[in-house]
Specification:
This protein is α/β, with parallel strands linked by helices and about 350 residues long. The chain has two domains: about 120 residues, Aspartate Aminotransferase, domain 1 (Alpha-Beta Complex), CATH 3.90.1150.10; about 220 residues, Aspartate Aminotransferase, domain 2, CATH 3.40.640.10. It is about 35% helix and about 15% strand. It contains ten helices and 13 strands. A hairpin with a 6-residue loop joins β9 and β10. Bound molecules: 4'-deoxy-4'-aminopyridoxal-5'-phosphate. The site of 4'-deoxy-4'-aminopyridoxal-5'-phosphate has 13 residues, from α3.
Length: about 350
């Protein structure tokens, strides 16, 4: 730590980017919930074209993207704000809307806790019930801002729209943030509730179903007033947060929904097949509405499975913490070919473990 750093940053706990991206060349990457498919050819062509005009600043309001997303979701462009990945949107929301504290499930996207700590807000974690987010546990939020990933990560389980509505309607004094990073793989979007509630923010990303994790593009949809608040914070600290190539690529991806749907279908089919195959090998695998599976083996530990796969140049996500999930691993669904290799390695390892 340099002597120039502000004392308040002396003990930061940054997000664990254990993707080990640089050292992972030649590995099958089933550890960071990316899409194994390249972006739509339209997204790539649009980005290439936009590169010709990089001498100009990008549009701070992403107007073309906002118009398209508004049309797709039956809302107004003014209800949408874009972020450099949905992580930035989450960070803007933590910065501006957690004065009374935050609450989120004890097993969920680890970034919520990191952001709460960074912004200096008090937070509580709410237990899952059989790995599910139970709406009845969220009845007394006392004005805390609630962050719920739906479907949840790393469990993969989705809440129904009815359950989400119970959380929103029983907490009129709280802002409810529904993080829909994986919604395209299953689950019902809370966008349908935007017209009914003014304490709801729905967060989305281009990183998963639209194969653009490296482009960094996310957005949120909410009522006009909250959108303007978030926009004000964004325009104060990072007005040109979305670069022109990313904006263009995003528009290209949205113009090619057929490509996205085809890839989502493939991932869902491979996911469901992989789940059955893993169950046959003695794995307990949670149902999944996402592009990943959360699984635990009857005899092998989570760490053993992670190590065997790593030796075979396949990366999955192992959670040493919290201890309650240390025997569970999160496996991103790759291409059918990648999953075939994964399953062969798993079959060999689990048969060996039986001997
Ligand atoms: N929310 C959840 C639940 C996630 O798993 C992720 C991806 N790690 C994100 C948000 C952030 O995604 P991005 O910043 O790439 O949009």
């Amino acid at each position: 730590m340099s002597k120039f750093l502000h004392a308040k940053y002396s003990s930061l706990t940054p997000y664990d980017t254990s993707g080990e991206i640089e050292s992972m060349k030649g590995y099958i990457r089933l550890n960071t919930n990316e899409s194994p498919f390249p972006p739509s050819p339209k997204a790539i062509a649009h980005a290439h074209e936009a590169a010709q005009s990089l001498n100009y600043y990008s549009d701070p309001e992403c107007r073309l993207l906002a118009a398209k997303i508004a049309e797709m979701n039956g809302i107004k462009p003014s209800q949408i704000v874009f972020g450099n990945g949905s992580d930035e949107i989450l960070s803007l929301i933590f910065a501006g809307f957690c004065e009374k504290g935050a609450a989120f499930p004890d097993i969920t996207y680890s970034f919520y806790k990191i952001l709460a700590k960074f912004h200096g807000f008090d937070y509580i974690t709410v237990p899952l019930k059989n790995f599910r987010v139970d709406p009845s546990y969220y009845r007394n939020a006392n004005g805390r801002t609630l962050f719920i990933a739906n479907p949840n990560a790393p469990t993969g389980i989705a809440m129904s729209l009815n359950e989400i509505e119970q959380v929103i309607s029983s907490n009129p004094a709280s802002l409810i943030v529904i993080d829909e990073a994986y919604i395209d793989y299953g689950g019902e979007s809370s966008v349908a509730l935007l017209g009914k509630y003014d304490n709801l923010v729905v967060v989305r990303t281009f990183s998963k179903s639209r194969s653009m994790a490296g482009a960094r593009l996310g957005w949120c949809m909410t009522c006009d007033e909250i959108a303007q608040d978030i926009r004000n914070i964004k325009d104060t600290i990072t007005p040109y947060n979305i670069n022109a190539m990313t904006q263009a690529a995003g528009l290209g991806a949205l113009e090619d929904e057929e490509y996205t749907s085809k890839n989502v279908e493939t991932i869902r089919r491979v996911r469901d097949n992989t789940r059955v195959r893993l169950q046959e090998m003695g794995f307990d695998v949670l149902e999944s509405s996402t592009n990943f599976l959360f699984a635990r083996h009857e005899t092998m530990s989570g760490e053993e499975i992670f190590s065997v796969l790593k030796k075979n140049r396949i990366m999955i996500r192992h959670f040493a913490n919290p201890p309650a999930i240390s025997d569970w691993n999160r496996i991103t669904i790759g291409t059918p070919e990648q999953m075939q290799i994964f399953l062969e390695v798993m079959k060999g390892a689990t048969e060996n473990a039986k001997k």
